[in-house]
Amino acid sequence: QKEVEQNSGPLSVPEGAIASLNCTYSDRGSQSFFWYRQYSGKSPELIMFIYSNGDKEDGRFTAQLNKASQYVSLLIRDSQPSDSATYLCAVSGTASKLTFGTGTRLQVTL
Amino acid sequence: DGGITQSPKYLFRKEGQNVTLSCEQNLNHDAMYWYRQDPGQGLRLIYYSQIVNDFQKGDIAEGYSVSREKKESFPLTVTSAQKNPTAFYLCASSIGLAYNEQFFGPGTRLTVL
Question: In the prediction, which pLDDT does B59 show?
Fold first, then answer.
């Protein structure tokens, strides 16, 4: 079982819609959760992090964490073509190192 | 202008050669990391360092070596012992190991000819 799992996609959403990206993790002791955006050929860019159960909002982005169910999600409201990228979920376990999922490719269509 | 720089952007190497990838940061971060990324795979940790003159192996350290002589610098050497070195190499830093918000440099794409 992979430690951090994401659907590879592509996830296709029309412009203006809400994109929902999901991630599950296996280590119940995980403390910190991160979402990175990676454009093709570029390095990952940190866009959200969440430490506590519940929702955290930042502009058009909302991160949701449910530790009991061991999943974390990222919602992107009013999706734009510039949001088309691969979104990496990363989880910090008890050793304080990050474990990355393989990413979900998001395509926002016109 | 604070940030992380990596050089070179592209690197070509013949089999059997060692190469060193540069990573410099001016964010005053204590912790630095090296990852490699292969197509269709997540980032895998090679080495990390919490403080100067100290570093630990990550999940895939075989065939790699690092040094941390200065807080700002964390070079990675890809040795000839690394069997499949062609990959995208990413350097990252964070305030400290307990603060996991890691910020990445632009990366070095290494190709072995």
Answer: 92
